[in-house]
Amino acid sequence: MGYSKTDYEESRILLYYGFAPLEDPQAVMFWQRTLCEMLELKGRILVSKHGINGTVGGSLAACKEYVRRTKAFPAFKGMEFKWSEGGAEDFPRLSVKVRDEIVAFGAPDELEVDDKGVIGGGVHLKPEQLHELMEERGDEVVFFDGRNAMEAQIGKFKDAVIPDVRTTHDFIKEIESGKYDDLKDKPVVTYCTGGIRCEILSSLMKKRGFKEVYQLDGGIVRYGEKFGDKGFWEGSLYVFDRRMHMEFSDDAKVIGRCVHCDQPTNDFRNCLNLQCRKQTLICDDCFNNGEKHYCEQCATQPAATA
Ligand SMILES: [Zn+2]
Ligand SMILES: [Zn+2]
């Protein structure tokens, strides 16, 4: 490997996904595991017959080599990688697994992919194309949050519809419920953290009669890089690592509210009831000084606070 000294001194995290038909997911899993072990990368990779979804961290040299070798596999040739700060130490271990789905919507047999990606998904909009659509269609456009409802408590697109979902598994039931039938003739823009959930969600929506569906390309992450807090995004972005949330600028609004005192806060904490563990917005004052360590439900049950 022709890498420089800094390539070995610095480290990074890679986030990526690719939808492509994989004839032998098991073989891809073994290849990926061996590759990561050789490069001393840690993280989590899921492989299915529809593609790959991963987050890995390690030295900059290892990350570069990983990208080069992964893209050498024809099915992953066009895959995009997001680079972020961090390294192997941000992950407890390496986990590479084969699953029915790389994102668990509970619809492995409905999803169809070809070498260009998901078949029948929403039209991809780059951040600037989203702004063009907003200029042309204005109030007609509806943002549809493709994440778990909890994530939207601290940040969302302006006036977004927040479906009542605890996990991605709940989406099909939700979009078939009839609650959103009035959106079927409107321009709907789905968005999620990095784009992968909307690849699937937008195709499921189109199959269920939503006629004009778009998906935000690269997700909130790429939109935030481009427009920060000066566009249609409001608040913080929920992230699935130690940081819990991130902001795009110092101007980020705090839209979350403490469940106990209604003060603005972005701090999710696990409910102390071990049977519950629900991630709950609790402000510093309530948590540290008021000893309020439970979610709103458990806090009212005497057994939990005993
Ligand atoms: Zn509070
Ligand atoms: Zn609880």
UniProtKB/TrEMBL annotation:
It catalyses: uridine(34) in tRNA + AH2 + O2 = 5-hydroxyuridine(34) in tRNA + A + H2O. Keywords: Oxidoreductase, tRNA processing. Residues 137-232 form the Rhodanese domain. The keyword DNA-binding does not apply. SUPFAM superfamilies: Rhodanese/Cell cycle control phosphatase. Its EC number is 1.14.-.-. GO terms for molecular function: oxidoreductase activity, acting on paired donors, with incorporation or reduction of molecular oxygen. GO terms for biological process: tRNA modification. Pfam families: Rhodanese, Rhodanese_C, UPF0176_N. Catalyzes oxygen-dependent 5-hydroxyuridine (ho5U) modification at position 34 in tRNAs. Belongs to the TrhO family. This is tRNA uridine(34) hydroxylase. It comes from Boudabousia liubingyangii. The lineage of its organism: Bacteria, Bacillati, Actinomycetota, Actinomycetes, Actinomycetales. The gene is trhO.
